[in-house]
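ok so for the tutorial part 2 we go from a plain amino acid sequence to predicted structure tokens. step 1 is just haveing the sequence, like this:
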Amino acid sequence: MNSFKKLIIALGILLGMVSCFDKSRPNYQYMPNMYEPVSYETYEKVDFLPKGSEAQLPVPNTINRGWMPYEYENSPEGKELARLQTSPLDSLDQERNIGEGQALYEIYCAICHGNKGDGKGYLVEREKILGVPSYADAVRNVTVGTTYHTMQYGLNSMGSYASQMNTKEMWQVSEYVMKLKQDLTK
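step 2 — the prediction. this is what the tokens look like for a chain of 186 residues:
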């Protein structure tokens, strides 16, 4: 009889626990902020941080590390001024610069301009884009400066590559384009 009472009490406790469970309301969470993070906007001022420790806008006229401002504006006049510009890269290390420029060209440019710079890349052959010029086209008068200007700002249907490559990489690709132009005009 004693074990029967214990069984009834245990069954009553179990029934009591099951009857209190409500699927529409979750159980109490221990440290809920670990499960449900609070999100903040990047440059939003927050009150709980000590003064001066929140993310702030950069100081005006600052330059990102690794990025150099381009002195010519995005206009036809700026492109004509850029035509006379020469590459600022070290001429003693030109072989390495052209080698790295070739690798970058094959990643970013060859899909449209072709591996030889003849304007017959994969997308042009498949007729996905049209009107990609050859570097040997005398009418275009491609120079190192205009190539860099075009990569910096984009031209016609070609967008800017300033966000994909840094300044040095764009100059390396520009030097490689001049090598391709020289090879095409031979």
